[in-house]
Amino acid sequence: MSLFSRLSVFLITKWFLPSTSSTCLLSLIQLFEGLSRVVTSRGEAQEKALEEVFERLKVFEGGMKEYLQGRASFTNGESLGLLDILMVVTFGPYKAHEEVLGFKMLDPERNPLLFSWVAAMNEHPVVKEVDPPHDKLVELLQFIKSTSHARSH
């Protein structure tokens, strides 16, 4: 498990939703692991990792729907919570992910709650203020992808 995954799990289990189902939490852990495999793998291995990520997103979204119980979003318009921050850091640059990796990680039809949540957070003033430019994110993702592929040869 990566350091980011371990830190995310610790923070979520310590401060976020002690009542969240273990299935949802496990899905989130596996989601972070799967995302790493999607970026660092190729071909059939990447396709398998992507299928796992889509499945984890589905389970995670189901858990969040259960937790939210009809409420619109975590973002209350004033401040971002811990999970908001983890989600926007992970999925906020979804357009850059699409450009570099060649597929839609978040899809409004497949994951309407998560997509609308991330889209709302991307419009939050604090996120807009600290969000790096799209071209810089694409450049960083291309670098990560190329160096991880170079290490695997």
Automatic annotation (TrEMBL):
Its EC number is 2.5.1.18. It is found in: Cytoplasm, Cytosol. GO terms for molecular function: glutathione transferase activity. Keywords: Cytoplasm, Signal, Transferase. GO terms for biological process: glutathione metabolic process. InterPro entries: Glutathione-S-Trfase_C-like (IPR010987), Glutathione-S-Trfase_C_sf (IPR036282), GST_C_Tau (IPR045074), Omega/Tau-like (IPR045073). Residues 1-148 form the GST C-terminal domain. Belongs to the GST superfamily. This is Glutathione S-transferase.
